[in-house]
Design goal:
Shape: elongated
Strand order of the largest sheet: 1-2
Oligomer: single chain
Number of strands: 2
Distance between the termini: 55 Å
Number of helices: 2
Radius of gyration: 23 Å
Largest sheet: 2 strands, antiparallel
Helix content: 40-55%
Structural class: mainly alpha
Strand content: 5-15%
Length: 66
C-alpha cells in the first residue's frame, strides 16, 4: 500500500499565517441529504405503494397516520 496517499498534505502558510483546511459545512450536509436522501425516500415510498396496490396490505409510513 502506498503510504504517500494516506498522508495529509503539509499545512499551507501565507505570510506566517496558517490557512484553514476545507471542512464540511451545513450547506454541504443539506445538499447530500437532497441528492441522496430524497431519492431513497421516494424510492421506498414507491415500493410501499406497489406492495399496497398488489397485495392490498398497507406497509407504508402513511398507514401509521391514516
Amino acid at each position: 500500500m502506498k503510504l504517500k496517499s494516506l498522508r495529509k498534505p503539509p499545512v499551507q502558510t501565507i505570510m506566517g499565517h496558517r490557512i484553514p483546511e476545507p471542512r464540511p459545512t451545513l450547506m454541504a450536509l443539506l445538499w447530500v441529504m437532497l441528492y441522496l436522501g430524497l431519492p431513497l425516500v421516494l424510492l421506498g415510498m414507491l415500493v410501499d405503494l406497489l406492495v399496497q396496490t398488489t397485495t392490498g396490505a398497507c406497509t407504508g409510513v402513511w398507514c401509521w397516520f391514516g
